[in-house]
Specification:
binds calcium ion, 9-stranded mixed β-sheet, alpha/beta, 13 helices, about 15% strand, about 40% helix, single chain, globular, Inosine-uridine Nucleoside N-ribohydrolase, Chain A, binds alpha-D-ribofuranose
Length: about 325
């Protein structure tokens, strides 16, 4: 029986691969719908990108729901310098196909609430790969859904790794630290793929070549997108590839043996200043607080990329 999931995201190149990986894995995952948030680029662009990706995958059966265009308290911070002006710039300059269907009328937060309430308790898994604004607003509007969820799996935060948007903070948490704090303190069953694990999943030249050559029609387009996505992080970190953050969440739901983690206490720092948005992670149980997050710490990068390549080839 496939696990029923909702995906909340801000495409963004790595969100794009997460969406396509989920669509390519019907035996393991039933993607009920996609909710979108402002993040890597503004909401109108993240919504359009999501709709274009569904057109690329020839999936006109999946609804896209527009959510919050900005964080709960702060002004939005975007990342066009990483993802390009469209949010999905490609190495070749080629654009994705036009969308097949309009965005759904319902607000993303109401989609999340209604989907969880209409399903059996414990049936829905929520995956979030962007700022957590939609999730926090849904939890505030409908606290009953927190316990009804099977679990929430996010890409965000960093335990030992430095931040990628400030020295202390990872982008998704930093954009909306107040939403993140509300979610981390909500009692939801939470698994966190932070920079500690995603910085091990680098899009090296052999892995990019494999996606291009063995990922089928969609893989060739993804390789063109990732060719662009690689540029900023290779320049910033000097690594031989950018970290492919968001698909870690989906790959783990497909094959839990790909990654390992440990329950730890994590709190989000919302104090104004250099630590704003830091996920303060109690790796060695130094504090008194009970663990509240499964923090993923290690994984098999070769198997991760092999899974992505194989599944993308099945989208033809
Ligand atoms: O820090 C990386 C995260 O921020 C990824 O989810 C990326 O898509 C951006 O949303
Ligand atoms: Ca993202």
């Amino acid at each position: 029986m496939a696990r029923r999931i909702l995906l909340d995201c801000d495409p963004g190149h790595d969100d794009a691969v997460a969406i396509l990986l989920a669509l390519a894995s019907p035996a393991e995952l039933e993607l009920i719908g996609i909710s979108v948030v402002g993040g890597n680029v503004k909401l109108d662009a993240t919504v359009l990108n999501t709709r274009k990706l569904l057109s690329l995958a020839a999936r006109d059966d999946i609804d896209v729901y527009a959510g919050c265009p900005r964080p709960m308290l702060r002004e939005i911070v975007t990342a066009e310098h990483v993802h390009g002006d469209t949010g999905l710039d490609s190495g070749s300059g080629r654009e994705l196909p036009d969308p097949l269907r309009p965005v759904a009328d319902k607000h993303a937060v109401n989609f999340i609430i209604d989907s969880v309430r209409n399903a059996a308790a414990g049936e829905i898994t929520l995956v979030a790969t962007g700022p957590l604004t939609n999730i926090a607003v849904a939890f505030a509007m409908a606290p009953d859904i927190i316990e009804r969820l099977q679990e929430l799996v996010i890409m965000g935060g960093a335990g030992f790794e430095p931040g990628n948007v400030t020295p202390a903070a990872e982008f998704n948490i930093y954009v909306d630290p107040h939403a993140a704090r509300a979610v981390f303190e909500s009692s939801v069953k939470l698994t966190m793929f932070g920079l500690d694990i995603t910085h091990q999943m680098l899009i090296t030249p052999p892995r990019l070549k494999a996606i291009e050559e063995h990922g089928g029609r969609v893989g060739a387009v993804v390789a063109d997108l990732l060719d662009f996505f690689n540029r900023y992080d290779i320049g910033k970190y000097g690594w031989d590839g950018a970290p492919l953050h968001d698909p870690c969440t989906i790959a783990w739901l497909i094959d839990p043996t790909l990654f390992e983690g440990r329950l730890m206490h994590v709190v989000v720092d919302t104090s104004e200043g250099p630590s704003l948005g830091r996920t303060v992670t109690d790796w060695f149980g130094a504090g008194e607080e009970e663990p509240n997050v499964m923090v993923m710490t290690s994984g098999d990068a070769d198997r991760f990329f092999a899974l992505i390549t194989d599944r993308l080839s099945q989208l033809d």
